[in-house]
C-alpha cells in the first residue's frame, strides 16, 4: 500500500519520534510505514488522519490490481 506519511509528517514539522508519540506507536513503526514495509491497523490509520487533520484516503492509497 502506498502512503504519504513522510510528506505529511514533513509538512506538519514532526520528527519520526514526535509523530510516533502523538499517535502512540514506536519510531520504528513510523519508519516502517514511511518505507511502505508496514500496513497500519485501522486504529493507527485513524490516529494519523486525526493528527494530520485529513482523511485516511488522503494518506493511504491501495496498490493497483495485478
From TrEMBL:
Keyword DNA-binding: yes
Key words of the record: DNA-binding
GO function terms (MF aspect): DNA binding
InterPro entries: Cro/C1-type_HTH, Lambda_DNA-bd_dom_sf
Domain HTH cro/C1-type residues, every copy: 5-59
SUPFAM superfamilies cross-referenced by the UniProt entry: lambda repressor-like DNA-binding domains (SSF47413)
PANTHER family: DNA-BIDING PHAGE PROTEIN (PTHR46558:SF4), TRACRIPTIONAL REGULATORY PROTEIN-RELATED-RELATED (PTHR46558)
Protein name: Transcriptional regulator
Species for this entry: Halonotius pteroides
Amino acid at each position: 500500500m502506498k502512503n504519504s506519511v513522510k510528506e505529511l509528517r514533513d509538512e506538519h514539522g514532526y520528527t519520526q519520534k514526535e509523530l510516533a508519540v502523538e499517535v502512540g506507536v514506536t519510531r520504528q513503526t513510523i519508519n516502517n510505514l514511511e518505507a511502505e514495509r508496514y500496513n497500519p491497523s485501522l486504529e493507527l490509520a485513524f490516529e494519523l488522519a486525526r493528527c494530520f487533520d485529513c482523511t485516511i484516503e488522503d494518506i493511504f492509497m491501495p496498490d493497483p490490481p495485478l
